[in-house]
Amino acid sequence: MAVLDIHLLGSPVLRERATEIAVVDDALRAFIDDMFETMNVACGVGLAANQVGSTQRVAIIDAEGQTFAMINPRIVSATGKESKEEGCLSIPQQYAEVERPALVRVKYLDYNGNVSELQADGLLSHCVQHEIDHLNGVLFVDYLSSLKRN
Ligand code: NI
Predict the structure, then answer these.
(1) Which of 23, 91, 132, 142 gives a 20 to 30 Å CA spacing to 13?
(2) Which residues have a beta carbon within 5 Å of ligand 1, which is an ion?
(3) Global pTM?
(4) What residue ranges in the chain does DSSP mark as E strands?
């Protein structure tokens, strides 16, 4: 395993839309293992491939006692609204309240390529949405007013 370099705000890859993964194979799993090591060293609760310079459509989560990879994740339902403070390993030392749907259902392929579905609320819901945003080139600061962003 290897610790990968985390790209910071301003790096173009953070603004790219990650592309669907066709095959879940050992090469992808090795990359996911590296992502986990990178996230753990950085003490993060989530990490998307864009943040380590890849446009593969995969993100990982370690929040609320749940640790998993989401390959080609897709939000299938979103209800309610909730504000929570968010940060991002690509935007160090910046935190802000972000309002998002409170409850989401997400479908994805897991580490072994099996179709999985998860219902998430609370912090986990925000984390899942934050990481899927990364795969669409969206950062949490995009939700802030220009006043707060500055
Ligand atoms: Ni982030």
Answers:
(1) 23
(2) 88
(3) 0.96
(4) 46-48, 58-63, 66-79, 82-88, 91-100, 103-109, 115-120
